[in-house]
Every structure is written in C-alpha cells, then in structure tokens.
Amino acid sequence: MKNSKELMNRAADNIRILAASMVEKAKSGHPGGAMGGADFVNVLFSEFLVYDPENPRWEGRDRFFLDPGHMSPMLYSVLALTGKFTMDELQQFRQWGSPTPGHPEVDVMRGIENTSGPLGQGHTFAVGAAIAAKFLKARLGDVMNQTIYAYISDGGVQEEISQGSGRIAGHLGLDNLIMFYDSNDIQLSTECKDVTDEDVAKKYEAWGWKVITINGNDADEIRAALTEAKAVTGQPTLIIGKTIMGKGARKADNSSYEHNCATHGAPLGGDAYTNTVKNLGGNPEQPFQIFPEVAELYAKRREELKAIVGERYAAKAEWAKANPELAAKMEYWFSGKTPQVNWDAIQQKAGSATRGASATVLGALAEQVENMVCASADLSNSDKTDGFLKKTHAFTKNDFSGAFFQAGVSELTMACCCIGMALHGGVIPACGTFFVFSDYMKPAVRMAALMETPVKFIWTHDAFRVGEDGPTHEPVEQEAQIRLMEKLKNHKGHNSMLVLRPADCEETTQAWKLAMENTTTPTALIFSRQNIANLPEGNDYTQTAKGAYVVAGSDENPDVILLASGSEVSTLVAGTELLRKDGIKVRIVSVPSEGLFRSQSKEYQDSVLPAGVKKFGLTAGLPVNLLGLVGTDGKIWGLESFGFSAPYKVLDEKLGFTAENVYNQVKAMF
C-alpha cells in the first residue's frame, strides 16, 4: 500500500536527523551524502525490500549493497527504523567495540550484506550477487527470485571498476539488479563538474542498461522508478536520482547549507547542527529518537513482510515437497559446508606444470561440485581454468545453466564479482589470471580477507620463468605481497588468507583440497607455467596440510636444511644430489604455506626446522619470502630485482636457479 508523501518525507527527515546526529556526536563522519540519500533508502526499506525480519539469512531475501561506505549513517539509521540497531548503538558511531563502525562491515544478522571498502567495490559485489542469483535460479527455479539492489555515488561512478561492473551487468542482462545512483554533483573536495562532464545515462545505456532519471528526493518519483525497474526484463536498471547533498541542512545563520562540499566529510557543527535538526522537525536536545508516526510506518512494513515472506515460505515448502533433491541441494549449498569431492580419484600426469595439474583438479570439481563457478580474466586457456570450462559452458545473457564466468580483461572487477557471489551465498567462486596481475586485484583480495569470504584466487605464471614475456609479466614481489595476508590476522584472530604455492602436480591436488576445505577465508593458489619434476618417490603429500613438511628421501640428522615452495623445491632436490656426493647430509622441506605452518604446534615446527641446524632457502621471489623460516643466521637465494626477457631456462642459468648454484651456495656455508 502506498504511503502518503507527507509520511514518507517525515521518515526521510528522521533518517537525516539520526545521520547528522551520529556524525555530530562522534565528531567525525560524513553527514551530507546520508542526508541526501535518505529518501531513497526510506522508500526502499519501507515499501520494496523483501526480507524476513525474523530470519535475516533467508536464502530468498532481496539484498541491498551499499557502495559509498562513508554514507554508513544513512544505512545504520534506516536499519534502526527496521529494528536492527538501537538508539544507543547509533550514538556509539565510530567508537571502539561499536556495531556501527565508520564504514559498514558485513553483518547479515544486522541487515548489512557487504563491507563497504574503496569506492566502486560495493556495487560490483552486487553485480556478483546478481550473477549468483541467476546461477542458482537456473538450477533451483523460482525459489531464487530475489532482487539485488545497489547504491552508488558520484565517486563510485568515477572509480574505474565501475566500467567493468557496468559492462558485465549489461552484457549478461542482469534484470535482477537495480542500482540507485545518488547523483548530488558534490564530492569531498570539489563539485563534480570540476572533474567530469560525462553523460552517465548514455554511458549505461550503451552498456545495455535501462536508465531512469528522477528527482532522488521525491518519494513518489522514487516509488514509480522502483516499480518500473522491477518490471524490466533482460536489462539491469540504473535509477539516476538527482539529490541534494546535505538536504535540510542549515548554517549557523540559518541560511541554507545544502549542496555544499563542507557537509560531505565533516560534522555540521554547533549552531549549524542545531538549526538543521530544528529545520527537519527534530529536537536538538534529544535527537536520537524515532518519531511515533515513523515507528508506525516501519511496524506496518514489518507486518506486510510477515505476509509476503509467509507466502514465499509456503511456495518454498510446496517446491521442496515436489523437488526434494533440489531442496536438499539448496540447503547444503547455503550451509557453506565443504563440498564432497573424490580426491583420491584425481590422476595427475607426473612432471607437469602446476597450472596443468590445477586444470586436472578443476575438471573434477566442475563435475562434482554443482554449485561452483569458475571465472577467468580472458586467460582461461593460459591460466588453465579451461580445465573447468571444458566440462561446462560460459554464462550468456538469458542462459546461466553453465558455470563459467568469462569476465574479460578486468581482474579487479572479476575479483569483486566473485566476492559478491560468495556474499550472496550458495555459490563457491574461483577466479584465475596471471600472478603478476594480482596487483590489479589486491584491493579486492584485502576486502575478501576482511569479510572472510572464501573465494579461491587462482594465479598462474608464478615467477620469472614466464621468460620471454619479460619483466612486465614476471612476478617478483607479488608473492611477498600476498604472503603478507597469511601474516595478517582477521578480527577472529585467524590468518586472514590461506596462501598455497605447491611444489609439483601431486602437491597441487592437495593444495586444491585445502582450498575447497577452507570455508572461512579466501585462498590463493599460485601455480607455475613451466613443467616441474615430481618430488622423490614415496613423498607423503597429505602433509601439505601442515604448511611445511620434510620431503621424502631426506637424511636423518641433517647438516643443512634446504627449504622452498613451488618449483624451487625440485631445484633443491637436484642440488641435493651434488651435495650428497660431498658427504653432506641434507633435509629438504617443502613450504607451500608458511601461514599454515605457523598455525601448527611449536613442537611440530621445531621438528621440521630445528634450531641449530644450518638453513638455506631458495625463492624465485624476494628473499624476504623465506626470512621468517630461514632466520638471520641462514642464507637465502632469491631475486632482488625485476626479471628479464629471455627463455626461462636461460633465466634459470643467469639468475642462479640451478642445482649447481644450490650446491655452490650451500657449500659456502660450511
């Protein structure tokens, strides 16, 4: 039922007062944008968004993704109207231990679907969620009829990721995606006209979006636009809402403070704040209140939702009765539990590149894990994600029966879309590209770690052995950067990421097993381009799960311990043959994951790397990769410069990644 414009304006003003008051009390934050966007979120939450107030994790709920996290006071305020936050919690905005941090952090039980990170990522998560919903609907049917709503600002439109996001959503015809663009023409330090004059509507239309332009502060126009957007088929919809930054704000002299950069990133302050609250119909002495008529509006919506959700649950029950196998699958997929995979049946070709070994595993996963989606940034035949693709087919507009996402050349966008799939739930996403391009993905990887989303990042061409492609394509420092995420703890005190660089094809199978079993953080899988000789016969690859282990064939009571990850382990094995000819007893340690290793007991760590024994590390990246394991008393041979363009075997010789150099370096330690 349509609410009166007077009531809707009153509710929006209530949100404006709460948002401005949160920032004022914290003496920090961004009131202007929140005040301008209040009308849209009020209409969305009081009339359109379908969710279960009693069961926030309901699989079939609509989802709302906020891109401009600095507008958190707007989100917290409207969620307070729905009963998800108390007035006391709003007053603790930006304070230690508060559930209302400066930028929203994912908390589905509180109605927050994503952590709002750098501008542009939030709405791209929404694109990924819309893809996940399409994927699941193709398998489960109308029980997955949810709408994905996104909210973007001028800054998000300017961030380059918006191009990838807009292109993909339009290309795939994501008609379950509705995005509101809060176009207030103001950003933090300038007016938008000082940095851009593009026609945003034409840009999105060129990508295949339906575009509706409205007065974003008019409840009737917002309602009409959302109603129209819900009826659109074959296209995502962009609602461009022309809004007023700091709507309702007044200065100390009671003149208008609207459309002013100063309201973007600072409290209104003193008399300006007092005048603003009065202007909006509030009490400056007691600003943290929900007006009685607004409380009644949201109570009515709660009752409406009970009826709507009741109907949806009844339909779901009928569907489950008619489709018990699908119902069981849906429950299992959304449980987030580890999928069942017959790992023992995976047969690897000895001496293959680990990217090829990964392809073998991906082929098995494509057949055995029905809710897995694999993506590639235009490199599926090089990063070998085509091992997955060969067992399925890529998404196309109107057809999400396949399970492969061809993202095109857009590594950051691809990563964020995969994170969005994971946030939506029910889907296990993986994405691949060259390791050097992880540089483009790092902001998304960090967000995945912060949100504890178990995306599998597949990075191939892991070192200078990319060879002829030269230094632009040869990762050197990238492993050090990603391995920092093993050292960084998340807020639960766990390693924020699992990073695995397997030593050969068999260790690759074990690495993938660990990745699929890791349901609580993102995983990095780092693979070689070139073939790698298998580790010695009899090696117990299940020890990969310990992060570091003694390779088969190692000597008892060693004189020296040689350690590495990835292809360098086989180089150590070759060097060991030369050392043993000189009577040197050698232990070889494979370290696919220092983070996992440091999570083992001290007794185990000491048994693998005992103190008082010489240690030599070999890494195709920066020496710091192994410093925490070798220690300052040991020796590390690594690469301390950019790579060079030449065949990889020539580079091995020139850069000292040979059995002979291992022999020479270790001999010099005695």
Describe the overall structure.
The chain is an alpha/beta fold and 670 residues long. The chain is built from 24 helices and 16 strands. It has helices spanning 5-26, 31-48, 72-81, 87-91, 121-140, 154-158, 161-171, 200-206, 219-231, 270-279, 292-322, 324-335, 354-368, 386-389, 411-424, 438-451, 478-487, 505-517, 568-581, 594-598, 602-608, 627-630, 648-655, 659-667; strands at residues 63-66, 148-153, 177-183, 210-215, 237-242, 372-376, 404-406, 428-434, 456-460, 498-500, 523-526, 549-550, 560-564, 586-590, 614-618, 635-637. The strands form 3 sheets. It has a 6-stranded parallel sheet with strand order 7-6-8-9-11-10, sandwiched between helices. It has a 5-stranded parallel sheet with strand order 1-2-3-5-4, with helices on both faces. A 5-stranded mixed sheet has the order 12-14-13-15-16. α18 links the parallel β10 (498-500) and β11 (523-526). α5 runs parallel beside α7, α7 (161-171) crosses α15 (411-424) and α19 packs across α24. It is elongated, with a radius of gyration of 28 Å.
